[in-house]
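Sharing a chain and its predicted structure for anyone who wants a worked example. Both blocks are below, sequence first, tokens second.
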Amino acid sequence: MRMARSTAFALAWSVACVSASAFAFDGTVAGQQDAAAALPVASAPLAGGETLKKAVAPSASLTALQYAAEGGHPIAQWRLGRMYANGDGVTQDDLRAFQYFSRIANAHAEDSPSAPQAPVVANAFVALGRYYLQGIPNSTIKRDAERAREMFSYAASYFGNADAQYDLARLYLKGVGAPHDVKYGARWLGLAAQKGQHQAQAMLGKMLFVGDQLPRQAARGLMWLTLARDAAQPDETWITESYNKAIAKASEDDRAMALQMLEHWVQGRRD
């Protein structure tokens, strides 16, 4: 994978995106190692002529996607990767999904962050990072947390992807695949939360409300938890539970201040 050897500009961009005063955090954004160029993604060649089982997607559509993907079209490769990852219209196959995502990463790592396909490229890095976190059974893709961090940090720093920033934050906060570092983790959470990543908003909100590894800011924590609750999926019960516990313990002053912060947030998003 052709990665940029120097990523100082990517780090500078990341720093500019977060406001230190907004969260009262000290320290700096993750260091040079976080934006370091990752090694080539392991990817076995896709077997030719395999039969795709028809399910939801018509065979003609699958054939068209295959044709475009073989021609190097990143969006087609992404769609096929997602289909195989989810078993949507094809037999679920994580290894084939990994292979499609790796093609995108290998061919487009140095594309401009403002390029039309940039979100797809960033999402491919995130998908690869998550595969490396778990590994793929009965394959050569083994669990490798450090490799996962490389995938997340590249997408987070170079492409500014909010999901990557959230996943990277979790690694730093847990000390998995990276040194345990609350400051880096909180900063990456802040970046993702500012962009509307609701899981990051929930985690940051809980940490701030409780005072877990961060100075307690109950009202700000409640604000983030409220935003996260509104965006949470039905199966994300940890978010609603965190909100319910916080709102039950919050003082009237905390609730009033959180409401003011929410109004400012909504107004800022409209502007």
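Comments welcome. The CA atoms of residues 120 and 219 lie 36 Å apart.
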